Amino acid sequence: MSLRANYGYVIVKPHVCHSVTPGGIALPEKSLKPLGQGLVVDNDNSYDEDLIKAGDTVFYIPFSGHEIEYKGQKLLILKDDQVLAVEKND
Question: How far apart are CA 81 and CA 48, in angstroms?
Fold first, then answer.
């Protein structure tokens, strides 16, 4: 991926919510609450590169960051301080 975040930012691929319930009821996209969870795509220019690395799962403040679409993928650009927790994928 050639997309790079500026210093102090992290690029995250957000976890996708299901738009159909197990019972088969379709939910409108506006009613879906963001989970605040995603997979780190790029973190080469972060304040602490050892804490958050590409491939880690992060939990962030819902409704935060800037949504972008890059090569058909929906991505989220977050500031480092919007990340609440990191799940290491060693």
Answer: 11
